Amino acid sequence: MKKRITLLLRSKRKIFIPISIILLILLTFDSCSIKNMLKRCSFKFKSIKIEGMELGKNKIHGEVTLEVDNPNWIPVKVKSVKCGLFIGKDKFFKGKTTEEFKIPAGEKREITVPFKATYKQITLEMIKILTAGAGGMKISGVAFIDAFFITIPVEFEVLKKD
């Protein structure tokens, strides 16, 4: 009886290893084809909000809201978004999301990117553009998107429209 169980376990091990290798190879090829099949998520600039200032620390806190559109047939998980806001030709801030989020297939979702800037980075021209809410603002960055065990960096550039 013990010999029979031992032989059965050995035969299962012999089958398990090749099947595991085949599955790993298939998953690798599937991941590559998924990467080519994924459409680019698109980004839209929704709003910018300055939440506060620290006079003693020379800091400005705020957030930018972006709308992310997932045109794919599968849901995607956005691991992080890193971006910078440019007003005219000057960089106003850099920001990064603090949490992951999922976007269902064929849907849109708004995300907020918190930022901190210093007073040194602000010019009079920037203040005019910010308070008027006019064009001249551009957000560019990269989003790291997960789908089927692979992370895809998606670069984007979005202009604020009047």
Task: Tell me what you see in this structure.
With 162 residues, the protein is of the alpha+beta class. It has two domains: 1-37; 39-159, Immunoglobulin-like. It is 28% helix and 48% strand. It has two helices and eight strands. The protein has helices spanning 2-37, 124-132; strands spanning 42-54, 59-69, 76-87, 90-96, 101-103, 108-118, 137-147, 150-159. Strands 1, 2, 3, 4, 5, 6, 7 and 8 form an eight-stranded antiparallel sheet that branches. Strand 3 (76-87) and strand 4 form a beta hairpin. It is elongated and about 70 Å long. The chain starts with a helix and ends with a strand.
Short description:
The protein has helices at residues 2-37, 124-132, and strands at 42-54, 59-69, 76-87, 90-96, 101-103, 108-118, 137-147, 150-159. The chain is of the alpha+beta class and 162 residues long.
- State the end-to-end distance: 81 Å
Radius of gyration: 24 Å
**Are there runs of 5+ residues with pLDDT below 50, and where?**
none
CATH topology of the largest domain: Immunoglobulin-like
- Report the top-level CATH class of the largest domain: Mainly Beta
The computed structural class is alpha+beta
Number of strands: 8
Looking at the structure, what is the overall shape? elongated
Strand content: over 45%
Question: Mean pLDDT, nearest integer?
Answer: 75
User: Helices and strands, in N-to-C order?
Assistant: HEEEEEEHEE
Number of helices: 2
Q: How many domains make up the coordinates?
A: 2
The main β sheet shows up as: 8 strands, antiparallel
Helix percent band: 25-40%
| CATH architecture classification of the largest domain | Sandwich
